[in-house]
């Protein structure tokens, strides 16, 4: 299974890279010129995102490094005990939508402490793999085209993250036991 | 809502720093965050330049249009507001497929290109359209088949069967994506309803 999986992800990009220009050449598209035309847009797009991402990451960094995040985790603790959600993994649930790098580092620490095949390790892995960093995606996508008012997008993203967390907890407990 | 979350993170961070008597921590964290933000954007440059170039070839060759036609029902259901045959649809679909196959690198440029195309249909360029919110909902809940990063990490930590979380991950990601799409629908209907009452 793993061999097939790694094979697929290894072959996918080279195949796409060969297929697109070949197909385009058959359709008489000047491939190199097309590439340059499209690639030109890459730089301004990346630059356009800078103010948005700097603004967001400054806030996230202050929130995390000063221990404010830690404080709020403590606030939630009694509540978790009541619903029997494993408190070792809860910080991940709170971090996942805010900081992708922070969440990944936390998963790493769970793997190191409890092992990747423990209940907590599987739960953390499933949570990390099943959703993306909502705040980052929102910042980058809206930032790239200069959207300031995001309407209900953040609300939807965060609620879906919460649903994902519950689903991960449910299925890991069902299949691997607590 | 973004405004409040942003304010909340900064103010609670400053308060936390003040309580510990380590306000210099706040300054350091702020500068570190700014540095990281620029670093991430610089890292994006190469990926964006490369993939936007490749995707332009695909667009010029008519491949994206073909993909959009092939998966028309999916797109019609998710993005009813986008006109048929619009270039945004091809990019949206490539973004979704890249996510699905775990090509996170390629997904972002395609998603950003889709946003740009959707922005052309936007009557108010500073406010997100419902279609943009839907694209975001799909991307933040990130429908993935193979969580490659996690599998790699489990291997490193000596897991006996690193891939045994694929099933649970697909279940969880499916749940969060379905919830995201349903919520997005619901908020969109509510928005359209209020717009109608305001207009009449």
Automatic annotation (TrEMBL), chain A:
Bilayer-crossing regions: 7-26, 156-176
InterPro entries in alphabetical order: Gate_dom, SpmB
KW Ribonucleoprotein (keyword) present: no
UniProt GO cellular component terms: plasma membrane
Domain Nucleoside transporter/FeoB GTPase Gate residues, every copy: 47-147
A Pfam family the protein falls into: Gate
Keywords associated with the record: Membrane, Transmembrane, Transmembrane helix
Domain of life: Bacteria
Record-linked PANTHER family: INNER MEMBRANE PROTEIN YJIG (PTHR35793)
Protein name: Spore maturation protein B
Organism encoding this protein: Marininema halotolerans
UniProtKB/TrEMBL annotation, chain B:
Residues annotated as transmembrane: 6-26, 38-58, 88-107, 128-153, 165-183
InterPro entries cross-referenced by the UniProt entry: Gate_dom
Entry-linked Pfam families: Gate
Nucleoside transporter/FeoB GTPase Gate domain ranges (all copies): 42-153
Keyword terms, alphabetized: Membrane, Transmembrane, Transmembrane helix
Name of the protein this chain belongs to: Spore maturation protein A
Source organism: Marininema halotolerans
